[in-house]
């Protein structure tokens, strides 16, 4: 037993386990001997164990060809065990081999979060989902402060005294069936300036309704809510929907959590584009700090998106633009920013939609609107953001139209998906989120909800999504570029993220609901029967793992000077464990793609 503890404890994924958990693991491990050619894992059989090679070698065979060779210390089965999918692979002994068969560690270990199935300890697979919260995901009931209640008729001076005596920074106000909030900032901003007197009713200061959040959202969720809405207080509601306490920005302990709020405040207070640019220059360092602090990658992406949203809204408020000011319009973000999952070096993709003449305050001049939109985007560039090199920008006539023209174009793409760029533009419309005038901007995705039920269009979209294939045709290493500046490297964005993002987008369009992140779309697909639970977990786990790998590479890219594209990775840059995990993830994603391709029509909601 001691020999096996030392053996497992010397290599990933077990090398971060403490002595007690190693002992538990070894106590449940079984030793098996396999003669050369013997089958260790049969094809299409769900796994219930991990296999670790002690001596000898195992061959991984797919479609009759050896695609991998496992040596002493190598582990097989993590992705398949966690996803619940049956691997379309045969594992056999390449020579006489001794192996350890270990049951699902989730049921054995006191600290399963310490298992390292990828190079990054924070990019965890489903194995540790929910196994323990980091400091940025504490439950909110541990952080809330007591509520200071007051009535709407109470005087401002009395409420201020009550807040001070309680040592708090806000009070909640009952106004009929609603709850409002008044904060110390309201007193400073409105009472000190004479806008409201000390004997005025507190309703003169209160914001109604107060912004709330559910206890279950966690610390990271509260941070995102504050960032998205630009507030420093939240009402925390219990499971019954009742106010249980108040959360302040400073209660989100740690500079790594407060820094995004400070950047958001600097953006909101910027009085010029130069001041806004100075605030936005803090973004790359903030993303690095959040990653170093252990915040999940998907939360970092959402924080990033919230800061970009705030910067674009501030640019729009800083300067008067007669053409845009004379017509009702909506600025819309596209792509990964719309899904709230940009990478640190992602472009900012935008679109513009304006009201049709009968609904607007004036007659739109498309040329003037696009000229002013270009000025807005130049200001955004001055703040350090990169515009879409492929033309998805709000001054481009393809991405700036009247509402009726947008709807007509979307219906045309759906009616005839064979026309030029119809599928690409449909996908971009599906990945859209309005930043201003949400009712107007939502007309883009409403066209998806109402007009995408033809099987021809859905089949064409699925074919487009399935064009993005994981690089599974390799032996021991990845399929890489064979020429050019990226020779010998694998682009993890189209090879890893995009196959999952594209399939999730197809699910969103087929479901008639284009909202949410990639993982939220996958979960929605499972609820509607478009995916099985195992398929959903496989795709979601693969997305989160690859997204985190790319995010870490981009946060470590030098801020100035030429640098290699961080989405291109040479196999030698990854440790053996990460390479194997990626290979298994790619094969699992390809398996889900093949299943959906065969049975998509039966999966569609009735």
TrEMBL record:
Please name the CDD domains in this protein's record. Answer: CAP_ED, NT_GlnE_GlnD_like
| Domain Cyclic nucleotide-binding: residue ranges | 13-102
Q: What SMART domains would the database entry show? A: cNMP
Upper classification of the organism: Bacteria, Bacillati, Actinomycetota, Actinomycetes, Micromonosporales
Superkingdom, according to UniProt? Bacteria
Q: What is this protein called?
A: Nucleotidyltransferase substrate binding domain-containing protein
């Amino acid at each position: 037993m001691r020999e096996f503890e030392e053996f497992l404890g010397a290599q990933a994924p077990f090398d971060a386990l403490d002595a007690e958990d190693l002992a538990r693991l070894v106590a449940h491990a079984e030793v098996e001997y396999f003669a050369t050619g013997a089958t260790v894992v049969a094809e299409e059989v769900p796994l219930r164990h991990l296999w670790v090679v002690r001596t000898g070698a195992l061959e991984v065979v797919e479609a009759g060809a050896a695609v991998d060779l496992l040596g002493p210390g190598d582990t097989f089965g993590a992705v398949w065990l966690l996803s619940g999918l049956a691997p379309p692979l045969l594992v056999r002994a390449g020579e006489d081999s001794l192996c350890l068969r270990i049951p699902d560690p989730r049921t054995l270990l006191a600290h399963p979060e310490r298992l390292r199935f990828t190079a990054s300890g924070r990019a965890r697979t489903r194995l540790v989902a929910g196994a323990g919260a980091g400091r940025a995901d504490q439950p909110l009931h541990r952080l809330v402060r007591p509520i200071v209640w007051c009535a709407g008729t109470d005087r401002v001076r009395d409420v201020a005294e009550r807040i001070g005596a309680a040592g708090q920074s806000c009070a909640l106000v009952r106004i009929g069936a609603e709850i409002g909030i008044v904060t110390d900032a309201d007193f400073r901003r409105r009472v000190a300036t004479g806008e409201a007197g000390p004997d005025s009713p507190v309703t003169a200061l209160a914001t109604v309704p107060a912004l709330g959040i559910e206890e279950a959202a966690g610390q990271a969720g509260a941070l995102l809510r504050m960032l998205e809405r630009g507030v420093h207080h939240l009402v925390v509601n219990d499971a019954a929907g009742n106010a249980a306490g108040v959360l302040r920005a400073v209660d989100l302990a740690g500079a790594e959590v407060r820094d995004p709020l400070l950047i958001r405040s600097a953006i909101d207070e910027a009085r010029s584009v130069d001041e806004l640019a100075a605030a936005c220059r803090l973004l790359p360092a903030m993303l690095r700090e959040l990653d170093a602090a252990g915040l999940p990658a998907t939360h970092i992406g959402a924080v990033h998106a919230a800061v970009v949203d705030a910067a674009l809204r501030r640019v729009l408020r800083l300067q008067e633009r007669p053409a845009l000011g004379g017509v009702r319009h909506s600025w819309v973000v596209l792509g990964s920013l719309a899904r709230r999952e940009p990478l640190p070096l992602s472009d900012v993709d935008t679109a513009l939609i304006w009201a049709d003449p009968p609904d607007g305050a004036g007659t739109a001049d498309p040329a003037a609107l696009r000229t002013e939109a270009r000025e807005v985007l130049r200001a955004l560039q001055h703040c350090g953001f990169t515009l879409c090199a492929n033309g998805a920008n709000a001054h481009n006539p393809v991405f700036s139209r009247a509402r009726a023209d947008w709807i007509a174009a979307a219906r045309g793409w759906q009616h005839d998906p064979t026309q030029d760029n119809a599928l690409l533009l449909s996908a971009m419309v599906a990945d859209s989120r309005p930043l201003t005038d949400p009712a107007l901007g939502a007309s883009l995705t409403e066209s998806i909800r109402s007009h995408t039920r033809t099987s021809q269009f859905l089949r064409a979209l699925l074919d487009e999504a399935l064009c993005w294939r994981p690089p599974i045709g390799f032996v021991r290493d990845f399929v890489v570029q064979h020429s050019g500046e990226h020779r010998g490297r694998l682009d993890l964005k189209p090879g890893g993220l995009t196959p999952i993002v594209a399939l999730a987008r197809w699910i969103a369009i087929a479901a008639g609901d284009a909202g949410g992140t990639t993982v939220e779309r996958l979960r929605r697909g499972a609820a509607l029967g478009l995916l099985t639970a195992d398929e959903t977990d496989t795709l979601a786990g693969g997305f989160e793992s690859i997204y985190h790998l790319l995010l870490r590479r981009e946060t470590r890219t030098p801020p100035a000077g030429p640098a290699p594209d961080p989405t291109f990775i040479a196999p030698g840059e990854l440790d053996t464990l990460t390479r194997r995990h990626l290979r298994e993830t790619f094969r699992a994603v390809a398996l889900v793609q093949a299943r959906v391709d065969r049975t998509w029509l039966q999966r569609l909601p009735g």
